Amino acid sequence: MKMMNYLLMMQTEGQDANPLMTFLPLILIVVVFYFFMIRPQVKRQKETRKFRENLKKGDKVVTTGGIYGKISEMKETSVILQIDKEVHIKVDKNAIIKDMSDVQPQR
């Protein structure tokens, strides 16, 4: 931070400011936002899309509303979840957030 302050204060009297030095803080902010916010979000979206494309009959999942169920039927944009022996609900694929097949059952 001290180095940046030093570089910004290097302008001597009578000289025009270097345009690169003027926009350097803005450029650094954009780069930081890209690597710490935008890039991880895009990566998470790709993983979620891949997960939803690889869903199959018999997978145990959780919806965004917190409903646990097992996929009993797949359609183009929706799935039929079995949440009890005779209880089936239709849920949009975009509402499925997790695969619960690897979670240990609670007692």
| Topology order in helix (H) and strand (E) letters | HHEEEEE
| Main beta sheet | 5 strands, antiparallel
Q: Tally of extended strands?
A: 5
Gyration radius, in Å: 26 Å
Q: With helices defined by DSSP (H or I, 4 residues minimum), what is the helix count?
A: 2
Q: What global shape is seen?
A: rod-shaped
- Report the average pLDDT across residues: 84
Helix percentage range: 25-40%
* Range of strand content: 25-35%
Strand arrangement within the widest β-sheet reads 4-3-2-1-5
* Low confidence ranges: none
**SS class:** alpha+beta
Quote the distance from N terminus to C terminus. 54 Å
Oligomerization: single chain
The number of distinct structural domains comes to: 2
